[in-house]
Give the backbone structure.
Amino acid sequence: MEGYGVPEIFNTDQGSQFTSPVFTKVLRDNNVQISMDGKGRALDNIFIERFWGSIKSEKIYLKLPSGGLDLYRQVIDYIVFYNSKRRHK
């Protein structure tokens, strides 16, 4: 939060990474209001869920990254492809 400021509200789904005591403590210690979608509410986030499914199946799983920098480059490359060249239904 140092470089970007502290948000007033942090909204997530109820994934274990977001409900963990370590994660929620950071939010509480910084007076950030925690907001979580209801259990089983995948449709609340359907567009980003579809995007992450696409990037994993069309890019990441086809050529596993060799490290963090490689993963970063693959994500950037895919976002450019997704926004400018990929056909959408």
In short: The longest helix spans residues 68-84. The chain has a mean pLDDT of 87.
